[in-house]
Amino acid sequence: MKEQCIFAGFGGQGMLLIGKFLAQAGMMAGKHVSWLPSYGPEMRGGTANCSVVISDRPVASPLISMADAVIAMNLPSMLKFQSLVKPGGLLVVNSSLIDDKSNRDDCEVIYIPANKIAEEIGNPKGANVVIFGAYLAKKLNIVTAEQAIEAIREELGEKKARFLEGNIKALHKGIEYVNA
Amino acid sequence: MALTLMKGSEAIAEAAIRVGCRYFFGYPITPQTEIPEYMSARMPQIGGTFLQAESEIGAINMVYGAAGTGARVLTSSSSPGVSLKQEGISYIAASEVPCVIMNVMRGGPGLGSIQAGQADYSQSTKGGGHGDYKLVVYAPSSVQESIDLMTIAFDVAEKYRTPVLIAADGMICQMMEPVELPEMIEHKIDYKKMPWAITGEHESDTHKRAIINSLYITVEELDELNERLQANYRKIEENEVRYEAYNLENAEIVVTAFGTVARICKSAIDDLKEEGINIGLLRPITLWPFPYEAVHKAATQPGVKAVLDVELNAGQMLEDVKIAVNGDQKIEFLGRYGSHMPTAEEIYDKLLQMRREF
């Protein structure tokens, strides 16, 4: 088993954080993991992305040239990364901010209004966790929802523990949206 | 001990602290600024000293002074900053003072780019400063290995009284991986074992006054220093060579690569193995002393038809691979300049192409 996943959005959307959630969950599930952020010269409001690899074997390359999944939170991210999804892979698109459709017809594409759902549950900053839930709904064989929640608990730590409940709710809403 | 998911830069800084480093002098530069940032918060918690110097030149000279007391001292920078440190490094080598220097390499020359690079290989291994000196140079290829090498780096620095360089790259510092940190130790300065260290003068002192100096003005004195240094380097060459051999058994081609590039090569090697094609990897962990014998042995073992050297520079380690192989095997080179990390697919294709040409 090897899952190579790219989380992309603009700075501040929390894509690096949900990438950490996935890496942390993978580690807690006993897998080998790596998390690599983009750190190129970026302008304010520019793109921010990270590559997460989860594998049964030690992670050879943390760089991803062909992804099992791409999660795109905004239009520049979808345009930049949709071509990297392997045929038969998964592309998750935030339809709250992306009106366009993907040009890919050889992979599974999920459109989810992540910001709208997050606002509906009273947690407008939780759109990243909603879209993480949508991704996770298709990947529960890699990490379970329980492991993801444990990872979120670990990443938030004691200082931010008050955000845990809101994040769990956002995660479940994302999973439910895909399963509905 | 449980695994923790940690960013390379923070893991490296914490590892240094755990193995007894209590003094850090540095100056910010991407992609290693998180190391001084972490140190600035952590050092005061444990009674250590973090100091942001006025420049890299200032920082390396602070290292020189603090390490002269026998304490464990670290500085960290990235390529252009490490260039500035070279004069100080030469002085430290000449004064036989142990310390550890991190170079989180980025693309060069000049200010270059902030992405990962490997083009400081020659500067690190062939003497970046003036004079006949060598640095022990470690090249980690994962966050865990960076941590493990930190322990080894301080021990080797003290054992041989020499500055040690850890040549990582931007990717290692920026990425997160699960790691196990070493136990916290306090480094005790034992002046009986370190008579060279400056103790500060006191009337009750009975031992000979220690002087740290790199000026040897007479021919005889300088000869004596250089002979002592060279004898020390021969001992290091004999005892401290490290490398990783990966999938060498029945290999048709042996890849040589170091640092993160070696990981990308492993990816290509793993993919080819699934197709029944055996490619080996010989990864130098010490860039100096270079594993000449191991590379020669791997390159000339029965069944091997060629060597492929892969680097994120124009072929700096290639020169050492050529010396190691000594004309006994065909060598090809796949290089990308700093910040242009080769993909596993490119290496995969190159290996298949070489195979077709056998």
CATH architecture of chain A: 3-Layer(aba) Sandwich
Radius of gyration of chain B: 21 Å
**Strand fraction band of chain B?**
15-25%
| Strand segment tally of chain B | 14
Sheet having the most strands of chain A? 6 strands, mixed
Name the CATH superfamily classification of the largest domain in chain B: Thiamin diphosphate (ThDP)-binding fold, Pyr/PP domains
The spatial strand order of the largest sheet of chain B comes to 3-2-4-5-7-6-12
Please provide the ordered H/E string of secondary-structure elements of chain A. EHEEEHEEHHHH
Strand segment tally of chain A = 6
Q: What share of residues of chain A is helical?
A: 25-40%
Strand content bin of chain A: 25-35%
Spatial gap, N to C terminus of chain A: 27 Å
Shape of chain B: globular
Strand order of the largest sheet of chain A: 2-3-1-4-5-6
Largest sheet of chain B: 7 strands, mixed
In short:
The complex is a heterodimer of chains A (180) and B (358). Chain A has 180 residues and is an alpha/beta fold. Chain A has 6 helices and 6 strands; from the N terminus they run βαβββαββαααα.
